[in-house]
Predict the structure of Polyamine modulated factor 1.
Amino acid sequence: MAEASDVNVGGGCEEKGPEGSSPESVPPDTTISRMKLLDTTVDTFLQKLIAAGRRPSGIPEKDLCSVTVPCLLRQRDALQRRLQRQEAENRQLADAVLAGRRQVQELQLQGQARWQAWQALHKGRKELVAVLREPE
């Protein structure tokens, strides 16, 4: 066990998750390169465990899971928090859009009412002018 303590088992657990980077800044082909990086990290981790003679369970898959599962759970939690924040922001934006639509509709109704009032006044003015011009 003393030999295993000086082995750098870093791997991908230092990554804080997606919160540090925006999805817009990640090109689509990086998914493949991230998968290759993950595979390389896993292989390196297993090689270091084997080289150090440290295999707590004796089953490589179980040893790997005991290390990667906590990292993946932290990443999942970070993604869930990000999703919740994004959904809340989307709800706020949707409410703002609906309020804006209601305001536009009210302004359209006010404009129509003013137009009709102006037409009525204009018609009344024409009738008044016509009456005043008639010879008696």
User: Anything to note?
Assistant: Confidence is low (pLDDT under 50) at residues 1-21. Residues 118 and 124 are 10 Å apart (CA to CA).
